[in-house]
Each structure stands twice: as C-alpha cells, then as structure tokens.
Amino acid sequence: KGRFTVSTAPFLHSENSTPWMMYQVIGTLVPVLLVSYYFFGLSAILISATAVISCGFTEWLFNSKPQKLKSLFDGSAIITGILLALTLPPGFPLWMVFLGGMVAIGMGKVIWGGLGQNVFNPALLGRAFLQAAFPTAITTWSPPDGRYFGLRGTNLAPPFFQGNNVDAVTTATPLSKMKFDLVPTDVLDLLFGNTSGSLGETCGILLIIAGVYLIARKI
User: Which pLDDT belongs to residue 186?
Assistant: First the structure.
C-alpha cells in the first residue's frame, strides 16, 4: 500500500525564498560598507557592527522560543542593522547606534507582528528616532581623510554622553554647502564619494549599480 502525505497549500514554491532575497540585498550592501570604510575608516566598521548586533539582540530578545533562531537567520535583522548604520554620520556615538537598533527592531518590526507585518521601514524608523532624540549628533559630519584605523567624532563617548567633536574634523555636507553658502560640490566627488555625509550615501555611482542589480534580479 502506498502512503500519501496530506498537507495544506501552497503546493508550488518559488526558489526565491525570503532568506534568499534578504541575503541578496546584504550582498549588494557589502560593497557599500567597504566603500564607507575606505572613506571613513574604522568608524564605519564599528557603527555597522554595533547596529547589526543591536538589531540581532533585540530580534532574539522579543521573539518567542521557536522563532528566535528562525528570525535571526532569515537575514532581516542584519539588513535592518546595515541600513540603519549607513544612514548615520561617521562620528556618531556607538551607544546611540545601539539604542537606534533596538528601536528599529522593537518598535519598527516586532510590535507589528514580525517580518512583513510592519507598516514602516524599521531602519528608517530607528533613524527617525535618533534624529528626534539626538539632533546635534546626527547632523555633525566628518570628511573623508584617509585614516583607515582612526575614529571619527565621538564614537567612543560613554552612554548618556554625547562628547565634544574637534572642530577641525567637522565639515558641511554638499547639501548644506549649497543651501547656506551657495557653493556647489564637484559632480565627480558626488558620484565617487569624496564628500562628507552619512556612511552609505556618499558614493552615488555604487548605489546606482546596486539598485540596477536588485532591479535586474527582481528584488
């Protein structure tokens, strides 16, 4: 006698699973992270690692036992952490980054029911919280200066302290230069990232290439 397995729909599954798509996006973000390190040094790595650890920790903390590992390894918390980090300035204090990661996952994802249920982008919700809570720190920029192992701004400021930036390493973004000083930024600098700004926004040409790749893969 043959045996039959009875199960519910769907019976046809796409090869493009949620984790597969998540890790495709992570793959496109790796070059962006490397470029941010090239321009902003160790600060870019520390901020990115802190954001990813914070998002993963919060994901693990607020999920029930069967879901803890599943939600950790589907890649969504990693993406949220990386995207949050790429929206922050190089000199941003790490304790603020960790707090932003907790808000991104806790208030931007978990309370809505988890992956796919959220009404706001978790990374941008975390960024909006940091913008409201720490407006000075999040609008203080450091220029690319070739110090691969140097820290920027107040990365290591203790919790609940913002620290003092050194005036010599603080500069305006291309947008503020144009708005307040009517000074344009060279187009090549905008395309290739030789400007001050958030970790992931300076190299326009790389972001365009990453976007085209994701569109081509229908992601």
Answer: 83
